[in-house]
Amino acid sequence: MCTGVEIALVASSVLAAGGAVAQGQQQKKMANYQAAQANADADAARAAGRVEAARIRKAGAQQASQANAALAASGVETGEGTALRITSDITGDAEQDAYTTTMNGINTGARYNAQAQADRLSGKNAATAGYINAGSSLLQAGSTMYSGWKKPNSTPAANTGGASSNNMFSNMGIR
């Protein structure tokens, strides 16, 4: 039969198991929240890259227009030769900067998405660890219960009729 102490040990193991599961689930929820935030940051980074690229294109077009107007005001034919090359270079540089900015936004977004995936994996692992810890606690409780049930009586039986016990010290009269 189990003693009160053994029952308390088993109960504490069961409570520990429940706590391990709850902790694993809480860590999973937190990791999923962080993953959702990282995904939102990824979308924001991509959008910011597109907005900044549009601003760069607009600024480049405005600068090319100003250069074109300045060249025309000085009497230069703007649709050919050096004047055309100047405005084309301004527009080309602006487009290159805009493309680079867009790609930076995409790459930053990809890093955030990778972090989100890592967060989700971390949450899944935390939940699994919680279940494993719970199982370990329950196995420990079962072991405690089993060993308590199988423990021999601590008081030796009276030696009657010359029967020997399994304990050699008891057979020799040593307690």
Highlighted features:
single chain, 175 residues, mainly alpha, 3 helices, 82% helix
Q: Helix/strand/pairing class, anyone?
A: mainly alpha
Question: How would you characterize the largest beta sheet?
Answer: none
Question: How helical, in percent, are the residues?
Answer: over 70%
Question: N-to-C SSE series?
Answer: HHH
Output the radius of gyration: 39 Å
**Shape descriptor:** rod-shaped
From the N-terminal CA to the C-terminal CA, the straight-line distance is: 25 Å
- Look at the structure and give the mean pLDDT: 84
Record field, number of beta strands: 0
**What is the percentage of strand-forming residues?**
under 5%
The number of helical elements comes to 3
Report the uncertain regions. none
